[in-house]
Design a protein that fits this description.
The chain is an alpha/beta fold. The chain is built from 13 helices and 16 strands.
């Protein structure tokens, strides 16, 4: 048993079973033995590779997307850019480099990086050491206090937020929990009391053994972002892997060295994530007063922004062509990953979503 697994088992024995969301939070964010505190998650030596690490084209297009939204909305005040879960800082570095072609956007622009991991903050500081705009770090999203439009970027951020899981049984929907068996191994349990009121009305008649996932943290965060965007102008862009219509039952997974591993096997040593429920995010943003566009497949979105023309400008080498394929092809990231835009009510149509 690894050290974090032993601590989780002792917590359960002392206080009772924990929810899936609690388990994910401990595994990812424990300050001593959590995944983000102890491992380098990104790259070939890590457990996954994100779009900004695949090609500079991705971050460049996202930066120019922000500039076009700003121009379309009247460019009245300097913008504030906020990135959630910035990884190594690659996306923001590429975005800011592309934005040098729009000097009016960068004039007065400020950047906030929302990152809880001190290890990743150091990588971001290195990536952005040559940035020409002020940059600050924070652990949680807070609407910037300065006036002006706000642009929130979230690439592969929402999939890492902890989800709760509910299982349909003969007696209703019961929350899935984690306990400890007689051999001191972590094991799956169901809460004794049904929680049907948490389940959307259109899912309550699902067949027995169906699973429903709900990420309350994501919904609350999107509501806060949407209120800020709607009040101040700007836009938010969420890009992640997920689904846009019906919840497809269980999606939470553990990945180590680019391979799936059992969820309860090695807490703290594997990345835990779940598919993003884009429909829930869109509904939350609309209820907060903003307009929503998408979700749109990532391949279609990037092509609409001009990624193929950018690849041509870069020379269409073998590596550029491979990156383009990885980002846009239906068999790669092009279909599973999706883009969702949040803009003020009655704002012009954002680029890429026509």
């Amino acid at each position: 048993m690894n050290a974090l697994k032993d601590r989780i088992a002792r917590l359960i024995r002392a206080s009772g079973p924990i929810t899936v969301a609690q388990y994910v939070t401990i595994c990812l964010h424990d300050p001593e033995q959590g995944y983000y505190a102890t491992r380098e998650p990104l790259g070939a030596r890590g457990d996954f590779i994100t779009a900004p690490e695949i090609s500079q084209m991705f971050g460049e297009l996202i930066g120019l997307w922000c500039a076009q939204v700003w121009l379309d909305q009247g460019k009245s005040q300097p913008p504030q850019m906020v990135e959630l879960g910035p990884g190594r800082g690659t996306l923001m570095a590429d975005a800011l480099r592309a934005l040098r072609t729009v000097p009016r956007f960068l004039s007065g622009c400020r950047v906030t990086m929302v990152e809880a991991s001190q290890r990743l903050r150091r990588s971001q500081e290195e990536s952005l050491r040559d940035a020409s705009v002020p940059i600050e770090w924070t652990s949680h999203f807070i609407a910037p206090p300065t006036p002006g439009p706000v642009f929130v970027l979230a690439n592969e951020f929402f999939d890492a937020l902890p989800v709760r899981q509910f299982v349909k049984t003969e007696s209703g929907w019961h929350e899935r929990q984690i306990g400890v068996n007689d051999d001191d191994d972590l094991t799956w349990l169901l809460a004794p009391v049904a929680a049907d009121e948490v389940i959307p009305a259109d899912r309550r008649s699902s067949p027995q053994d169906a699973v429903f996932e709900r990420c309350e943290q994501a919904i609350a965060l999107v509501e806060e972002i949407a209120r800020a965007v709607n009040a101040r102008g700007g836009g938010a862009l969420v890009i992640d892997y997920g689904y846009g219509s019906e919840n497809p039952d269980q999606t939470i997974q553990a990945v180590s060295a680019h391979k799936s591993v059992p969820l309860l096997e090695q807490p703290g040593n594997a990345d835990l994530s779940a598919h993003v429920d884009f429909r829930a995010l869109a509904q939350a943003a609309e209820q907060a007063g903003a307009s929503v566009f998408g979700p749109l497949e990532q391949g279609r979105f990037l092509r609409a922004l001009g990624i193929e023309a950018r690849a041509d400008r870069l020379g269409r080498s073998q590596s550029v062509s491979a990156a383009l394929n990885r980002l846009t092809h239906t068999a790669e990231m092009g279909t599973l990953f999706k883009a969702l835009a949040i803009v003020p009510r009655d704002a012009p149509l954002p680029p890429g979503f026509s």
